[in-house]
Write a structure and sequence with these properties.
heterodimer, A: 238 residues, alpha+beta, 3-stranded antiparallel beta sheet, two-stranded antiparallel ribbon, 10 strands, 15% strand, B: 271 residues, Trna Endonuclease, Chain: A, domain 1, 2 domains, 5-stranded antiparallel beta sheet, 5-stranded mixed beta sheet, 8 helices, elongated
């Protein structure tokens, strides 16, 4: 039986700050995003998509709402270190990333079909060199949810249908069927009140009226239960 | 003299996007269907030393793993792109992404026909990129940091750097300093032994400290004898006998041996 021991750090952090947990003020780096002509509901889409992903534990970049210019803006936090974020995934890395992060790849494939994200492309940051530092984050959800089409009502209609919407996905054909099916079940089992909570804010959110938020929630609820028939068989490998 | 045209881009990094002060950190050259990259930190051996990037922008070496990911990105671009237009397309996309790494406008240069894009890249790198000086005295600490980084021990949740273990003997606690300690699954202790830049007496003190520390930890059952590690630099001939003395009490791993990080990784993960 070894003698008990204690570990002391030789260079303890400075303790001249107030509070029992020694909190300090900090500044984080992020990418600030606004509604724009190509994605008129960008801020809502980004925020709702992040909440949906977080409810399901789908690995998307963290982000926060902030106020800038004429109202809410969405700040997507940089992935990796302050001032030094990871590069976007290259086309030639799709297969390698899917092999290194099979669970995350399956999650993001299922999630993108669910929210109708037609712009995944290389919008993923993944650490590829450090074996013990797994880091995978998907970002950019402005061309999903209410901006599947220019008209939000039309976007909701398409989400309610069994249309795949996604025409190309980097992990198409690179995800195991059983793994993807587990994610489809997880999405289908998301309780309706949680789903509603992610999409409906009880008041207008920039230009997104409460009834549009409600309609989106209902469309996603329907789509979540039909995902297995929406995702084409070619999207997964046996 | 016959000449030909190549397309060059400077690779840049802006530490502060508000200031928009880009600093050149590399050169990409495309010609005759091949592309070559010369980046800050490139070594003649083909390895890369991220310290130069960290030094240039005032970052601690802990950020070097992200620089390596970017280096990999640019190398992949150089390897995969077949045309200058393809490279420009990727670089445009990079600029739009808001990354702090980007490329300058393409420059068409006339070079001697016999000069390969690799030679051109190295020549342009010499004239377009300022390489910061790395203080020589930090080499030992850098080698230690680099060994921990390459072994990826710093990503192991039970890994501690620079600690003092208090052995709780009732009424008579003992203290042992370690350069690193991996607590689980099987404890592993690491001490350092530095020869260069130290006097004979200082090296002898370090050697005694290694012997005393590991003897205490093994006597109290905290470390097995095969879990006591000494990382050391190149010994001076007249002090090499100290290594032999320690060899019975600990496993010696030279910092200049490329196998050392792998050996450490095996020791931690084989359990």
């Amino acid at each position: 039986m070894p003698t008990p021991y204690r570990i002391h750090k030789l260079f303890p952090p400075r303790r001249n700050v107030q509070g029992i947990t020694h909190p300090v003020a900090c500044t984080l780096h992020g990418i600030l995003k606004f509604d724009c002509p190509d994605s008129p509901h960008l801020v809502y889409n980004e925020f709702a998509a992040m909440r949906l992903a977080q409810a399901l534990r789908v690995p998307v970049a963290d982000g926060v709402l902030t106020v800038a210019a004429d109202g809410y803006a969405y700040a997507s936090l940089e992935v990796a270190l302050p001032g030094l974020d990871l590069p976007d995934m290259r086309k030639s890395d799709y297969r390698k990333v899917a092999a290194r992060y099979p669970e995350a790849a399956a999650a993001i494939l299922a999630f993108d079909y669910w929210i109708g994200n037609r712009d995944r492309g290389g919008n993923i940051k993944a650490a590829m060199l450090s074996e013990h530092l797994p880091l995978f984050r998907a970002f950019d959800h402005q061309f999903a949810l209410l901006d599947v089409e220019q008209d939000p009502a039309r976007s909701v209609e398409r989400l309610k249908s069994t249309e795949p919407i996604v025409k190309f996905h980097p992990f198409q054909g690179l995800v195991e069927k059983t793994r993807l099916e587990q994610w489809l079940v997880r999405i289908a089992c998301l309780p309706d009140d949680t789903l509603r909570n992610c999409c409906v804010f009880g008041q207008a959110f920039r230009t997104v009226l409460p009834e549009t938020q409600e309609a989106l929630y209902q469309a996603l609820s329907v789509r979540s239960r039909r995902l297995s028939e929406i995702i084409p068989a070619a999207a997964m490998r046996p | 003299m016959t000449t030909r045209e190549v397309t060059c881009w400077t690779i840049r990094y802006a530490a502060d996007p508000f200031r928009q002060e880009h600093r050149n950190i590399g050169v990409l050259v495309h010609g005759q269907g091949e592309t070559h990259l010369a980046m800050l930190g490139d070594q003649p051996s083909g390895d890369s030393d991220a310290r130069y990037f960290c030094r240039a922008f005032g970052y601690g070496e802990a950020v070097s793993w992200v620089f390596r990911e970017w280096e990999r990105w640019f190398k992949a671009l150089a390897m995969e792109a077949r045309t200058a237009a393809e490279i420009q397309d990727e670089l445009n996309h990079l600029a739009k992404s808001g990354a702090r790494f980007d490329a300058g406008e393409p420059i068409n240069a006339i070079v001697p026909a016999g000069e390969s894009p690799l030679v051109v890249a190295r020549r342009l790198f010499g004239s377009m990129v300022t390489v910061p000086k790395i203080p020589k005295r930090s080499t030992f600490q850098h080698d230690v940091d680099d060994t921990f980084r390459r072994s990826e021990l710093e990503f192991v949740s039970t890994f501690h750097r620079d600690v003092e273990l208090e052995i709780e003997v009732p009424g008579q606690p003992q203290f042992v300093r370690l350069a690193a300690f991996v607590e689980a699954p099987v404890p592993l202790g690491i001490k350092l032994l530095r020869f260069n830049g130290r006097t004979a007496a200082e090296v002898a003190d370090q050697a005694n400290d290694v012997l005393y520390g590991f003897a205490a930890l093994t006597a109290h059952g905290i470390l097995g004898r095969d879990r006591c590690i000494v990382l050391h630099d190149e010994p001076k001939a007249r002090l090499a006998h100290l290594l032999q003395r320690i060899a019975g009490a600990a496993m010696l791993l030279p910092l200049n041996d490329p196998e050392t990080p792998h050996a450490l990784r095996r020791l931690v993960h084989a359990d």
